[in-house]
Amino acid sequence: MNHPLLSTNIFTKVYYWLISERCYICDIQNEGLLCRSCAKHLTRNRTLCVSCARPMSSLVELCGHCQTNRPSFQNVIAPLVYEGLTRAMITKAKFEDQAHLLRPLTQILAATLIDELDLTKSWHWTVVPTGKQSLLERGFCQTSLIRQLLKNPIRDASGKTFKIFNVTRSFERPAQHSLNKADRFRLSHKTFNVPQPVPEYVVLIDDLITTGSTIEACSKALKKAGTKQVVIAALARTPAQSSDYR
Ligand SMILES: [Zn+2]
Ligand SMILES: [Zn+2]
């Protein structure tokens, strides 16, 4: 497959970000952000745990982890499996200065949220805050960018104002991808500050969900502060057997 967007040429990036009528991946003329052929390379997360959206090999209601530790959030909406092209696009967006690749992925997330989220409720949209160290490395906050890209489609579909709400980190810790699974769980407690008053219904946005420890810590902080329901929205979820805790 041809990947013209993997160029870091500034004109290429601005063109695709703002005015492209071509597929973001293969560059053929196309009305949508991705042509049908490239979209097929994004693995959809269809056989999944109804609670944490972990991709499963067979259709069971809850994964083993959710059966023993029911999460504090309502459910996770994550339309893609973090592998293949999805994985390449998220990695390039986060670590190789190609944030525009989040746009077609967020479009898929928006369509899934419109299908699956109860838009009659008055949701407030928050993000898992990016740590200072990651912000310095990347120069942008990918979760805030995803939220910004969700604004128009969600507002149009719900007919409601897109309300935002911010959670902050209470202390700095090493970047997620530098921690192993045990360290993530150990360090995930008491990491988030939730300003009062808290909204009743919160959608918490992250780009990628791996162990789920960060979203659980953030969701717990929201619930403890008084939020009734937290739904997680993410571009992708790692496969169940993945040893890659990026
Ligand atoms: Zn294409
Ligand atoms: Zn689960």
TrEMBL record:
SUPFAM superfamilies xrefs: PRTase-like (SSF53271)
Transmembrane domains' residue ranges: none
Domain Double zinc ribbon: 17-67
Superkingdom of the organism of origin: Bacteria
InterPro entries: ComF/GntX_DNA_util-trans, DZR_2, PRTase-like, PRTase_dom
Record-annotated Phosphoribosyltransferase domain positions: 201-241
Protein family per UniProt: Belongs to the ComF/GntX family.
A Pfam family matched in the record: Pribosyltran
The protein's name: ComF family protein
Gene3D superfamilies: 3.40.50.2020
